[in-house]
Amino acid sequence: SSMEVVLHYRPHQRDLIKLQKFAEAALKEFPIRQLPRFAPWFPNELNRLPLKPKKQAPVISCEEVEELKQLSTSSECVTGSPDYDCTKNLLEFHSSMKHGPTLVQAQAAHRPLNLDYQGEPPPNGKQKLQRSWSVSLPSAKLKEKIQPLSQELQNNLERLKLHAFCRAKWTIEQSLCKNQNLEDVWIKLNRLIKQNELPSCNATIQRSVGQIWIFCDILYCEYVRNILREKLSLTDKMNLLVHKYGIIFSL
């Protein structure tokens, strides 16, 4: 069989002897290296395992096997007993147990805190726990009342590149409460949040610094501020703070 070979070369490389040698070298077959037989690097005979236990397996005598059989047949399995009752040792399931005091104590432990509590000490001398936070539930009825944000606040959001759903904080101090006590304002605020009048809000009272913090989405911050002014009778301006940005708006 014949083969036609076309050799392309540059004009300045016209040495026929070099071109012929170059073509012959290109047509030579590639050398094939004979691969050696695979030899594993670990012993693979089944009768000669490379890993062996350091100690032999324990040997049990026939007498010990018989003793174990007798112990297993004589012992009773508690879980397999047909009359097993998991409530046998629980006092609250006994017929002689009176459920009245237990239920009353459980109801008292889980009874919600009365927001109308004015701070009078209870007769038993123990001080009642005071609520320190409150969270609102979502309400679809408020969407109709929410007005678009003011132009000033929109400009601030564009300048700071903040989204309308970022969380912001209103702060109520004693100076804004007129003749009211901060605890009284906190009780009223809890009622507003419980009645879902403040959308996306959660609030906390910081008694150590004498402040009430109200967190809400910026989208509803102006509406929340107007409700606070109306329902809580707050005076003066309040500053709206965003984490890492400081005060972004005053109303």
From TrEMBL:
<dbReference type="GO" id="GO:2001034">
    <property type="term" value="P:positive regulation of double-strand break repair via nonhomologous end joining"/>
</dbReference>
<dbReference type="GO" id="GO:2000042">
    <property type="term" value="P:negative regulation of double-strand break repair via homologous recombination"/>
</dbReference>
<dbReference type="InterPro" id="IPR039996">
    <property type="entry name" value="Shieldin_RINN1"/>
</dbReference>
<dbReference type="GO" id="GO:0045830">
    <property type="term" value="P:positive regulation of isotype switching"/>
</dbReference>
<protein>
    <submittedName>
        <fullName>SHLD3 protein</fullName>
    </submittedName>
</protein>
